[in-house]
Amino acid sequence: MNLWLAAWIAAAAHAAVPVLAPATVGEEVSVQLTDDDGGALAGETIRIVTAPGLHSEAERGVGITDSQGRVVWTPKASGPAILYAGDRPLVTVEVRPALPDASAIVPFLLLLVAAIGAIAYGSGPRGARS
């Protein structure tokens, strides 16, 4: 799933940071920066701060926007994160954990059903099995 975010840099210095729909660990998020007139902001350095305000807070560079004002970010950990363009906060993102692959769950479910069947068979009346 490719999530597109149009982050507009507010003219006011104390503008509120908008909240983006949740992203998912391991799935690309495309960020596009535009000015107030809708023009692309190329060459902006984008960085991410994860777990803002917590002891485990971490910051890393995402990249520099291309000629279309875009950069791609792939979340590595779940939890809150704030995207910045330079020193300006752009948007707050809640990153959800990745869901397990369904094919990994199927063998476990089959084993569980077999175990329940064995317990049910073993707990029946003894005379009924002969």
Describe this structure in words.
The radius of gyration is 24 Å and the shape is elongated. Strands 2-8-7-4-5 form a 5-stranded mixed β-sheet, with no helix packed on it. Strands 1-3-6 form a 3-stranded mixed β-sheet, with no helix packed on it. It contains 1 helix and 8 strands. The chain has a single domain, classed as Immunoglobulin-like. It has one helix at 102-122; strands spanning 3-8, 19-24, 29-34, 45-50, 58-64, 70-73, 79-85, 88-96. The chain is an alpha/beta fold and 130 residues long.
The CATH architecture is: Sandwich
Task: Give the proportion of residues in helices.
Answer: 10-25%
Q: Per the principal axes of the C-alpha atoms, what is the gross shape?
A: elongated
Structural class: alpha/beta
Distance between the termini: 56 Å
Topology readout:
Elements: E1 3-8, E2 19-24, E3 29-34, E4 45-50, E5 58-64, E6 70-73, E7 79-85, E8 88-96, H1 102-122
Kindly summarize this structure in a few lines.
The chain is of the alpha/beta class and 130 residues long.
Properties at a glance:
single chain, 16% helix, Immunoglobulin-like, 5-stranded mixed beta sheet, 39% strand, 3-stranded mixed beta sheet, 130 residues, disordered N terminus
